[in-house]
Write a structure and sequence with these properties.
alpha+beta; Beta-lactamase; 11 helices; 16 strands
Length: 384
């Protein structure tokens, strides 16, 4: 058995697994675990996750009746060799059974979620619809977006852009984070004074709904729509309608930009245990501890594929990523962010995995995919 880290320097880091799967022949495969695991497994001592009174139940790994050899070898290697993973959590059957922090990270430390925030914005939009602030995803964004309005590159097609188009990254605007020539590429927008106005002023390059291109600014527009429709800043809306019901209080919003950022443009910072609650909410179809926080209908609709980006199924800001283990395919409802931030939800297995990391702008942030493929999924799907 061998685990590999998938590294490549040929593309922009914000491209996730779709790039890897689509361009597998061009990748350099760097061996992280050498054959036979020469470092052994004695350097890792497993501890049952602690009960912290935060709404989580925990259990011992032994309760799963699985062969834990690969898991012990995984964490021995992660402890003994240089890597940029900050945390690994695994929830099985509603209980945290693996909770490990690495490279100086601790359990109560908040982590920058980067683009994983997009998937949480999708949940917030569902709540806004459930509560009547927004009527329908097929509504034009102009129905809720009163200020600003487009002032440049006026085009009748802009009037056709709906909330659904933003959710599926198919607005038709010249906004593609993976194309440095795109006027709406995120790094270019970050330099502008008014992100909202600049984005709305972008020229149209496609009919709305025709093509999906990864566009961070579309998710920012969504957050602002929620804010204007509800009369609350996105952080206050999230606090009242999502985080408080989940028992999440150690959370903040921020950005790496030195400029003053509007609330809708900020990213989430959360602890790994709280990030896992988001995954469990998806797994439980909108419920947390038997309380319906967002409708089952929305969870099913938002995580069901609606389009493809770089050949991989994409819902409403949630990826559907296939993994192969023990001869079977398991599809993960996935949120992901630059640096190695992942929420992976496996409904078939009643399992959620969370990774955080510091591999920013490096293909090392794809290491969790190898951990899932080579270690965790084979362990928890092994047939007796």
């Amino acid at each position: 058995m061998m685990m590999t880290a998938i590294l490549s320097s040929s593309r922009h880091i914000s491209q996730p697994l779709p790039f890897i799967m689509k361009n597998i022949a061009t990748l350099i495969i760097i061996t992280l675990f050498i054959s036979g695991f020469c470092y052994g497994q004695d350097s890792y001592i497993y501890s049952k996750p602690k009960d912290l009174g935060d709404g989580w139940k925990t259990n011992d790994l032994k309760s799963q009746n699985v062969d834990t050899t690969l898991i012990y070898k995984l964490f021995s290697q992660l402890n003994d060799r240089e890597n940029k993973i900050h945390s690994v959590l695994l929830v099985k059957d509603g209980q945290i059974i693996i909770e490990e922090y690495l490279n100086g990270q601790v359990s109560d430390q908040k982590h920058d979620l980067r683009s994983t925030t997009k998937s949480i914005r999708s949940i917030l939009l569902g709540i806004a619809i459930d509560k009547g602030f927004i009527d329908n995803v097929n509504d034009p964004i102009s129905k809720y977006f009163k200020n600003p309005i487009p002032k440049k590159n006026l085009d009748q097609r802009k009037e056709k852009i709906t909330i659904k188009h933003l959710l599926t990254m198919s607005s038709g605007l010249d906004c593609n984070d993976w194309d440095k020539k795109s006027k709406g590429q995120e790094d270019k927008v970050y330099k502008k004074k008014d992100w909202l106005q600049y984005t709305l002023n972008l020229p149209m390059v496609n009919e709305p709904g025709a093509v999906s291109n990864y566009c961070s600014m579309g998710a920012v527009l969504l957050a602002e729509i929620i804010s204007q429709a509800s009369g609350m800043t996105i952080d206050k809306f999230a606090e009242q309608h999502l985080f408080n019901p989940l028992g999440i209080s150690n959370v903040s919003w921020g950005h790496t930009s030195s400029k003053k950022i509007i609330p809708s443009g900020k990213r989430l910072y959360m602890t790994s245990r709280d990030i896992a609650k988001i995954g469990q909410l998806i797994l439980n179809k909108g419920k947390w501890n038997e309380k319906q926080i967002v409708s089952k209908k929305w969870i099913e609709e938002s995580t069901t594929p609606k389009t493809k980006i770089t050949g991989i199924d994409y819902g409403y800001l949630w990826w559907n990523i296939p993994f192969k283990a023990n001869g079977e395919i398991f599809v993960s409802k996935t949120a992901l962010g630059n640096g190695g931030q992942y929420i992976m939800v496996f409904p078939e297995l009643d399992m959620v995995t969370v990774f955080t990391g510091g591999a920013y702008n490096s293909q090392e942030d794809k290491l969790p995919f190898s951990i899932m493929t080579d270690i965790l999924l084979p362990t928890f799907t092994a047939k007796e």
